[in-house]
Amino acid sequence: MPRNTSINSVLIIGSGPIVIGQACEFDYSGSQAALSLKEEGIEVSIINSNPATIMTDPVVADHVYLLPLTCESIEQILQEQKIDAVLPTMGGQTALNLCIEASNRGLWEKYNVQVIGVDVAAIEKTENREEFRQLMVDIGVGVAKSKIANSFLEGKEAAQEIGYPLVIRPSYTLAGTGGGFVHKKEEFDAALNRGLHASPTHEVLVEQAVLGWKEFELELLRDKNDNVIIICTIENFDPMGIHTGDSITVAPGMTLSDKCYQDMRNQAIKMMRSIGNFAGGCNVQFSVNPENEEIIAIEINPRVSRSSALASKATGYPIAKIAAKLAIGYNLDELQNQITKTTSAYFEPTLDYVIVKVPRFNFDKFKGANKELGLQMKAVGEVMAIGRTFIEALQKAAQSLETGRAGLGADGRQLRNLEEIMHSLEHPSSDRLFHIKDAFELGVPLESIRKATLIDKWFLVQIQELVQLETELRRYQLSNIPRDFFMTLKQKGYSDQQIAWLLGNVTEDEVYDRRKELGINRVYKMVDTCAAEFQAQTPYYYSTFETENESIVSDKKKIIVLGSGPNRIGQGIEFDYSCVHGLLAAKECGYEAIMVNCNPETVSTDFNMADKLYFEPVFWEHVREIIELEKPEGVIVQLGGQTALKMADRLEKLGVKIIGTSFENMDLAEDRGRFSDLLKDLDIPYPKYGVATSAEEAIQVANEVGYPVLVRPSYVLGGQGMSIVINDEDLEKAVVNLLKNLPGNHILIDHFLDRAEEAESDSICDGEDVHIIGMMEHIEPAGIHSGDSSAVLPPFSLSQAVQDKMEEYSIKLAKALNVRGLLNIQFAIKGENVYVIEANPRASRTVPFIAKAYDVPYINIATKVMLGANKLKDFTIERKLTGWAIKEPVFSFSKFPEVDKQLGPEMKSTGEAIRFIKDLQDPYFRELVSKKSMFLNAQ
């Protein structure tokens, strides 16, 4: 049956700023859904307040509303556009909650708008813990023993009836906010209060805690004919008790019996059919007793979720794209399989590989945070790896994290204190995976590790085998490792760096050369959704060590774009935005655009975004072999943040062309000491500075430049390790700490300009001309990281003389650094004096904000300039902003109530929102300005 022809215009609600628990996976789903609807000739409007997303780009939607996610904004859109239907399932919990609020206010009825993709009543059923529990009882699906509580007294009575341990789950919250385990009576009162206050309806579920049970997720799709398919089964490596967003997850399920799997499927389908008559996607979570395989339902989410993005990338099945088409009336058997192009979408993907997702944490940004994992999600991002086996994928995921690990251990960073290791196993944190391996290395029995972690024995056996392999490897020298054993090591996911460390006295390059001599090379396999039963048409690859290579190299000229890896504070979705536009521009210039990235949440890893996608760690060994296979014209490192930039040196040494600004000039800007010398030569004012390699040198420099001083290491992003100190004692502590965490790094000591304002310029240079795209004035003063400061575009109080100096210095620096492409410069302004703090000849987090505020194809132009396809004079750059745009940082401090929330030189925000004002008398803006005055006067 064809689509519903009464729907000609759809509004998609986005998820707003990035916060812990709701990240860029909804940019991916929203973008995919919008493009899917546009294919059908439907006019698409999008509301989202996050400027860093692809979904808020003109290439995705017909009408983009960068407005606060409120009912007032919704009504404004409904008045301006003729909207036939709203799709609220692509924007996470934020979009669902807003849809409910708009429904309660009667907006959808008033403007005759259908809610598609979900039933509003279904949202109520799934979010209201008591209604969900009762529904499961009615349909015969097992649930944990529980009681609802709307008051402190009701909660106490529920706890007395159920018994400990308990779990408290607030209604209508995101990522487990306000929830937690209660192991004993003395902890209950405080936990209950937290939960009641976290719930917008002052309601919690007091539930039996099934600690140690296994956890599984199923991703489902249903059409209007009630056909249901299971897209993916995901097993949590970690047992119940750790939020699934913080857990290592694996697909397909590794430890399920067939009987339990079939039972779980049947229950999931029954659950989806019970929550309303709608067509779209759904996520179901189950817990399984490892003793007898008893199954209980945890929750059902009638929307795309974090796991939907993961499942899409894991299987190649574009869940959001198909869900959008189901929402407008299509049936599954009427839609095409996007991978094979010859079969229908009414099939369940089959995996002949294993995917592993590992979360990425940023506890270093939250000093004093409780690092123990539990019901409240704390991860800021995630990586996904694909391998032929679980252990290969797990090692690749560890290499993808960008935490300095070369794999799962065997890299010199092992923990050797047994007491610390056992504490880590019993109290899970971000390092527990690595500490399991450390425990095996120290001889801790498998059963002891299983009892401490409650992780399934099958997973532990896989890790234990690595220790046995490493013991055998140490018997050899590089020259006499048998080829078969060398091949086994590579198939188990070992990096050349790990093998070099295990052998000792050899380098990574020597290991690489030796295995090449032995003919041990990476081959690339296609992600095809159907285990090669049908031929796949989509160039989407992962690497392994076998004989057949499925990645056929074309004779086209190619460009490789290196992605930004996992989201973390200081490097987030804005760099993926830049990468996506870089790919699109490269394609427009006639290149075959190749993407390398490992982040399953992003648009850049959508299988139809690049001409060719390698879902691989942005880790030197992997990148090197892709380059050797593809032989590109060059590699773009400017768009992927610090992840890509860190490879520029090795690319240069390998003779690979870096597209855009050269490594030498990027390095000059990154090296704080050399950069300050350049400013001196150019007669550009800068704070007095000095470089130190020890605490003694730092004290000497600080006394020369004068306190207060800003202490910072070279080559970092997001203000990592920066601090402001006012005396020798504090300086010594700061420097010792930096050198401990970043050994061998040069420490820059800058005189800190107190009571100074901060501003930024963003520009493009083609080697001859410089075009300043935008200048921003910060609300917060110098000393607070630019990512944590509200910024106003264009400046609202800086004199014309100051702006002229900013422009003059930007042009001088662009030419002195021989920039080809992007340049971001940060300034400190004191009175009418303008000082340059730093220059970044790469994409920065301000790029999408300026692009959206001015409606300028910023990255598209910059990439074409980098590629040498165009000069700046070929473009007419027209800014369409009337009034001012304000970038507002957004924080996730609610996840870490115990940490110091004071802002400083190290970035702490997880995302940002954009707001437009027409008039400087706007009340919101006047409040910001008064805050600025207060900051400057108080410093």
From TrEMBL:
PROSITE patterns: ATP_GRASP (PS50975), CPSASE_1 (PS00866), CPSASE_2 (PS00867), PROKAR_LIPOPROTEIN (PS51257)
Domain of life, source organism: Bacteria
Lineage: Bacteria, Pseudomonadati, Bacteroidota, Sphingobacteriia, Sphingobacteriales
Record's protein name: carbamoyl-phosphate synthase (ammonia)
Domain (ATP-grasp) ranges: 133-328, 676-867
Organism of this sequence: Sphingobacterium litopenaei
Catalytic EC class: ligase
Family to which this protein belongs: Belongs to the CarB family.
Classification via InterPro entries: ATP-grasp, ATP_grasp_subdomain_1, CarbamoylP_synth_lsu_oligo_sf, CPAse_ATP-bd, CPSase_dom, CPSase_lsu, CPSase_lsu_oligo, CPSase_preATP-grasp
